[in-house]
Amino acid sequence: MRNFFTDFLKEFNRSEEKSITIDVSLINNSHELHQVLKEKLSFPDTYSEDWDNFWDIITCHVELPKKLQFIGWSELERKLPDDSKIMIEYLLEHNQEFPDWHCNFICN
């Protein structure tokens, strides 16, 4: 019984410390953005690369990391202002609706 709890706590601590960095500085279109999100956040193959499905995936299918850092954010905002705004809105909404699975996201 003790090993079970020890293993559980180790696994829990690992997931708590999970951090992912995504370089979005070279992304030029929505398709490229969704492909990078799919790869880096381990979205399922069925991900349809739209914002409604992004919401479904981050709320039902994958656990977001504790820390999510976007490098080159100002470039993404310049090139894809609508997509960058939608993504941030969904991440904020995720954090409000699921405080136990809060994701600290940083846009550099």
From TrEMBL:
Positions of the Barstar (barnase inhibitor) domain: 19-98
InterPro entries reported for this sequence: Barstar, Barstar-like_sf
Family statement: Belongs to the barstar family.
The protein's name in its UniProt record: Barstar (barnase inhibitor) domain-containing protein
